[in-house]
Specification:
mainly alpha; three-stranded mixed sheet; DUF3526; 18 helices; elongated
């Protein structure tokens, strides 16, 4: 143990003298802090935007009260009045933005057909979407392995190339102690940086101090251990430093870039998703065709679904609101199978990636961080389902006015349903991610142990 401490202290002195490595650690620390700043700023921007939506709804109501100063037809109110289904982020989302940069955080809804409104989003710069957002999870998953590679590519090869290894092993010291001390020091440096960034991020984002703190730190530690294991395997091959560096960078490119790309391509081929544009076109055709169909046909189809309104008066006018909203809803129902197939296809793709991400610890770690923060695809699909239920509640609120010919008064605005949805962690995905990372760590260290046994250190 005394010899281990001497070697550990020697590594500290060597690290302190290597200004390039110190600078690299400081650079990673700076990028991590920027990732925390960007993530918290983006989530705060979304929160502020969501906080302003009730005010927009209130202004819309005030305008309608001016436009319709007395009791009004509920059809007019349903057409002009807009409200919002809001997807509030969890505080952990600031550390792992996930899909919140590409999926809308709210849906603007009226009493019209749902599907067009559900998938309507604000225009986004495609180059920004392509490059993605820069958060703490990105730093930990994609940049931290590069620091580990920079620290470990010459774990023993530099001593061998400088002739120090021969002298070192001539002393009464086992090679395992030398490798262990070198690896332990680098592990302390990397885990110290990752832990510091994680703690700063948690404090900055003001996350709740629950079990997810342990889960986040466990994911971070296991992911770092995996990359140290990869470095240990490459070191066991006892190749020159340049070869080690190229090999480690090749593994990084393979696991972080190539495998995810091939996995995405294969999953898209294996689980095709119906085109959303076909759904939109069919709904519009169905709704536009409603103008030309006999009103009796439309209403009979609607009454088959809602028999409680069958006793309402026969429509004799050229236009009446209850007929208009009836064929709007029938347009939604006409594309309901395609909408369900689209959502199901997305979920199937996610499930397949989640099954295969054992092939890439980087994807596994990113998926797990997103699941922990509630910023993954299943959470977004849950929000869409909640928005659909909210639209159903709006229809249920307005139908008595429309079919009972009840006038809509100013007091009725306050009784209109409201919506709020807050992200929740996907704990099953998170637990599976931890287990798969643990298996990856065990596999790589097992391989390293075998290589060190069959290829003993030769101080040539």
């Amino acid at each position: 143990m005394h010899l281990f401490r001497i070697l550990f202290f020697y590594e500290w002195r060597h690290f302190r003298a290597a200004r390039g490595l110190v600078l690299l650690c400081c650079l990673l620390l700076a990028t991590g802090l920027y990732g925390i700043y960007y993530g918290t700023t983006e989530i705060e921007r979304q929160r502020q935007h969501l906080a302003n939506l009730p005010e927009l709804t209130r202004r819309n109501v005030d305008e309608l009260k001016v436009k319709f100063p007395g009791p009004a037809d509920a059809g007019d109110i349903g057409y002009y009045h807009s409200t919002f289904a809001m997807h509030h982020p969890d505080r952990w989302a600031a550390l792992s933005l996930g899909l919140r940069d590409v999926n809308p955080s709210y849906v603007k809804l009226r009493l019209l057909g749902l599907q067009n409104q559900l998938y309507a989003t604000d225009n986004t710069n495609p180059m920004k979407v392509l490059s993605g957002n820069f958060d703490l999870a990105f730093v930990l998953v994609y940049l931290l392995p590069l620091l580990i590679i920079a620290l470990c590519f010459n774990l023993l090869s530099s001593e061998r190339e400088e002739g120090i290894l021969v002298v070192l092993l001539a002393q009464p010291v086992r090679p395992a102690v030398v490798v262990g001390a070198k690896l332990a020091f680098r592990l302390v440096v990397v885990l110290g940086l990752a832990g510091l960034l994680s703690v700063v991020g948690m404090l900055w984002a003001q996350v709740p101090l629950d079990g997810r703190v342990i889960m986040w730190l466990s994911l971070t530690v296991l992911y770092c251990l995996f990359w140290f294991g990869v470095s240990l395997v490459v070191t066991a091959l006892q190749r020159p430093s340049a070869v080690n560096a190229v090999a480690l960078l090749g593994v990084w490119l393979l696991l972080v870039v190539l495998v995810p790309s091939l996995l995405n391509l294969s999953v898209a081929t294996a689980r095709p998703v119906p085109q959303g544009i076909a759904l939109t076109i069919k709904q519009r055709e169905e709704i536009h065709g409603g103008w030309d169909r006999p009103k009796t046909e439309t209403m009979n189809r609607f009454f088959a679904l809602y028999p409680q309104w069958r006793d309402t008066a026969t429509i004799r006018e050229r236009f009446v609101w209850r007929w208009y909203y009836a064929f709007q809803h029938l347009g939604d129902l006409a594309v309901a199978p395609q909408a369900a197939a689209y959502a199901h296809g997305l979920q199937q793709r996610y499930d397949l990636v989640e099954q295969l991400n054992l092939l890439s610890p980087a994807i596994n770690a990113q998926t797990s961080f997103n699941a922990l923060a509630g910023t993954d695809l299943p959470t977004h699909l849950q929000f869409q389902r909640s928005a659909t239920r909210f639209h159903d509640s709006l229809r249920a609120f307005y139908y008595p006015f429309l079919f009972g010919k009840v006038e809509f008064t100013h007091a009725d605005y306050a009784r209109e349903p409201t919506h709020s949805f807050t992200s929740q962690p996907e704990l099953p995905t998170l637990y599976r991610g931890l287990v798969k990372l643990l298996l990856s760590v065990a596999a790589v260290y097992g391989l390293g142990a075998v290589l060190w046994r069959v290829r003993p250190i030769i101080p040539r």
